[in-house]
Amino acid sequence: MPAHEHGPSGLARIGPDHLPPDIAEEYRKLAASPPKVLQFGEGNFLRGFADWMLHVCNRKGLWNGSVVVTQPRPTGRANLEQLRKQQGIYTLLLRGLHEGRRVETKETISVFSQMIDPYAEWDRFLALAENPSLEFVISNTTEAGLVYQPSEWRPDAPVLSFPGKLAMFLYRRYRHFQGDPSRGLIHLPCELLDRNGDRLLEAVLLHAEDWGLPIAFRRWVRESNRFLNTLVDRIVTGYPAEEASDLFAEWGYADPLVTTAEPYHFWAIQGEPELEKRLPLATAGLNVKWVEDLAPYQMRKVRILNGTHTMMATIGLVNGLHEVREALEHPVWGPRFMQGLFDEIVPGLQMDRQPLTEYANEMLERFRNPYIKHKLADIAMNSLSKWKVRLLPSLKAHLQRTGQIPPVLAESLATLLRLYRHTAGDEAHSVLPDGSRFPLRDDPASLEAIRNAWESVNGGEPDDVRLVITRILSNADLWGENLLGLTGLADETIRLYLRREEAR
Fold first, then answer.
1. How many CA atoms lie within 13 A of 484 on its CB side?
2. What is the C-alpha separation between 193 and 190, in angstroms, rounded?
3. How many CB atoms lie within 10 A of CB 251?
4. Is the pLDDT of residue 104 over 90?
5. Which residue in 163, 374, 430, 456 has a CA-CA distance of 20 to 30 Å to 66?
6. Is 132 helix (H, G, I), strand (E, B) or coil?
7. Angle at which helices 489-503 and 462-473 pack, to 10 degrees?
8. pLDDT score of 422
């Protein structure tokens, strides 16, 4: 996202001359500190997450390092140039709830020592590979950024993809240090994908193979570098466009790169605890865990946080709700969502119940954050595929544990089918209770299968609805299995769907 230029006229821009004394001293030290991190990604998330964490480590005297930031795509040039103008300094505003009370903190972040545009400064970018102080690579290039894209071997020209740039960078480092195993790097991808470290390694090795780079180099990449799988969690809401002018007037300076985020943060990294000595995040008091197995943390997040979001989105939209906080505070649906979370989702996880409950309560406080307007329509995009991954396992676990269909999760399935009921046209969409259109963004083949099922009947009579819902639930291509095998699910889904139609 490009840098913003809004703010009261006449105000100075943030920079070294407009820093609090303590931050100014840190900035002077930063200029002399060794670059330890190469960061692919100049956007809001990393500035509100990993860069903030490194800044905290430096402030506490635990790390003494700096970040060299580069943009993974040509479209990131505006942010990079603005960082240059501000000499790497920006403002982070953390706002939310803590133990039921509103909290708000403003921090001036200074952690960047260099900004490199790889498309205009390719030689300078590659030269960084020869720096002996470099230890880590951090990235956030979106899910698409880890996808392998074939490219020609042209070492004198920038590679478009992130894995391609990284492969070229590592080859330069390998050659400069003559394959020294101690000069490998620790890679911490923050892209929201399972096995993100494994995927990045695979893409880098594919480039090395395509380009015919030496087998010894490929072995060095695998054995002397660490590509760690990670799980990141923080809502970073970015530039506060509606409030920027008032904030700048209050602060006495303008910052086109100010970013906002919730106070909550969590970073799970699949690696041995000894790595904490090299990157002392937990020592600095941050909510970071070096773990042997990332799977329980991923499952907890997908089932509880993401699953609750999807449950609320389908039910909420069909019942005239618009935002997460509104849905939680609704006198009728709020308690139902609590029932779905604590009675149907949490018990289905084979983990210690107390930390799961604590996590769920912490999550609810995040959902109630008055500074975040989290729209249910945004969460509901790709709801069909999300429901299958996030809620179907919880529904099956509840059925296996109790012998009963969980009522709230069944309600979410019935409302999902209502939301996805559409006819052929220029754009697949549903009509919400307020008359607005909700565009259906999902797998085209899945949308077509649901549309064909509804168009196979003549009307909306109960027998027609029963036939259509039975056909949809039996479609293993949609759900990964025939849901008619889950005793009672079809009958309960049909009952809830028809009840909803009768109430309209």
1. 12
2. 8
3. 18
4. yes
5. 163
6. coil
7. 140
8. 85
* CA nearest neighbour of 162 among 134, 200, 135: 200
- Which of 463, 444, 376 has the alpha carbon at shortest distance from 416? 376
117 lies in the same domain as 94: yes
Q: What residues make up the domain containing 450?
A: 296-503
**Average pLDDT over the chain, rounded to an integer:** 93
* Residues ≥6 apart with Cβ < 8 Å to 50: 39, 138, 140, 188, 190, 267
The residues pairing with 93 across neighbouring beta strands, listed in sequence order, are 106, 260
The string of DSSP letters for 273-329 reads GGGGGTS-TTTTT-SEEEES-SHHHHHHIIIIIIHHHHHHHHHHHHTT--BHHHHHH
Tokens describing residue 346 = 């949490």
Q: Which two structure tokens, joined as six digits, stand for 404?
A: 């009963």
324: CATH: 1.10.1040.10
CA distance 488 to 339: 20
Residues 6+ apart with CB under 8 A from 210: 150, 151, 153
The residue-averaged pLDDT of 300-314 equals 97
